[in-house]
Amino acid sequence: PLPAQGSLLYLDTLRAAFPKALASRATALLSWAPGGHRAPAGWPLPTLYCTPAEAGALPSRAAALRVQLLFALRTRALHVLEAGLATELHDALVALRASWPGLAEDLALGRLSPQPGLPEDTRCRLQALLVPDATRAAELQAECALGFEGIVQRLWPQLEVVVVGTAHGAEQLYCDALRQADCKGLPFYCPFYRAAGALLGINMWPKEMAPRFLLCPDWAFCEFLPCPAEEEPRTVLLGELWEGREYGLVLTARPGEYRCRAGEVLRVAGFHKQCPVVEPIRRESQALSVRGESIPEERFCRSLCRAVGMWPGARLVDYVCVESALLGASSGACAPHYEVFVELRGLRDLSEGQRYKLDQCLQEDFPIYKSFRFKGSIGPLRLHLVGAGAFTRLREALGSPLPMPRVLREERLLHLIQSAVIS
């Protein structure tokens, strides 16, 4: 559970930066929580939300996000748009692009249309909360007919901020894409830092682009292993951290729970009233390593984004990486290599020369990878394009409200993404 101090700090920080953010029924929530409703920001005040709690607990992720989107569209005077993950906001806006005529009709009639994953008894209860609103339906139709650049602020002109539960790692890719297109002109605020199910810190600077978190000493017991690892590793405590250094997180969440490495690496960005302020850097478990080269996910993502910048007109939607050994015979008979699956907008196909740009970027960014490629012990990277919406469907199949890993190791998900390959 979220400490009361964390909830109060969040509310105070949000109100100070965005004065109308705590207005009654002025927050819309887009978050799938099949085990029961939870507010990603951690403060389940029903008076803040215009979206019903029951909608987020539907058995289907797609149905939950569409129903929450419909209730959000009813309220023109939104001040806060909140999502558990940036990917959930993205997928809800994909549903808006695909089905805005049907959503406008539902708004005009005060109706909730039947859909897969929405039980009939739940649909009837939620529909009872709707009333016909032809004016709002006409506004939705007019704005969507103009295109979707900046659509979020056009639909909700009083919106002040987008709150997301996670904004680092691969979720940052979606935050950046939303900032550049659908949510143009709006700040993104990630209020809390969580690891291994425990709340560790709060972001006191909501208007800054890159999230950084004040570690609160009495929320969990934290220890830190200096990076790179020392010969005889020894953990240090909060008062022993140095600004600018990186540390692996060792966590004991509550008294009596076992002590464990959380798999998170943090950089100390500074101090606030003697408490360290940290930036999450990477997850140790998310790395590609076919010959022991160990390329972290976030650095691989940087190389991929650099390669995409060399493909005119292309914008990266999402990606996953796979070590070829996990694909078995389908990966071919060459040396172990990386298989990369990407979804792009603005480009339908890539030449062989363009595909090689990613392998070239990896060689430039990682000398150890270049060495293994030169020796032939790592084969050429293989890049595959997947169809539009492939990653939205993959998240639905994953059946988890947690962020999806970008280094895939589950065969069921590998087969799903392979089936979406178009070239």
From TrEMBL:
<feature type="domain" description="GH3 C-terminal">
    <location>
        <begin position="311"/>
        <end position="397"/>
    </location>
</feature>
<dbReference type="InterPro" id="IPR055377">
    <property type="entry name" value="GH3_M"/>
</dbReference>
<dbReference type="Pfam" id="PF03321">
    <property type="entry name" value="GH3"/>
</dbReference>
<dbReference type="Pfam" id="PF23571">
    <property type="entry name" value="GH3_M"/>
</dbReference>
<feature type="domain" description="GH3 middle">
    <location>
        <begin position="214"/>
        <end position="283"/>
    </location>
</feature>
<dbReference type="Pfam" id="PF23572">
    <property type="entry name" value="GH3_C"/>
</dbReference>
<dbReference type="InterPro" id="IPR055378">
    <property type="entry name" value="GH3_C"/>
</dbReference>
<protein>
    <submittedName>
        <fullName>GHDC protein</fullName>
    </submittedName>
</protein>
<dbReference type="GO" id="GO:0005737">
    <property type="term" value="C:cytoplasm"/>
</dbReference>
<dbReference type="GO" id="GO:0016881">
    <property type="term" value="F:acid-amino acid ligase activity"/>
</dbReference>
<dbReference type="InterPro" id="IPR004993">
    <property type="entry name" value="GH3"/>
</dbReference>
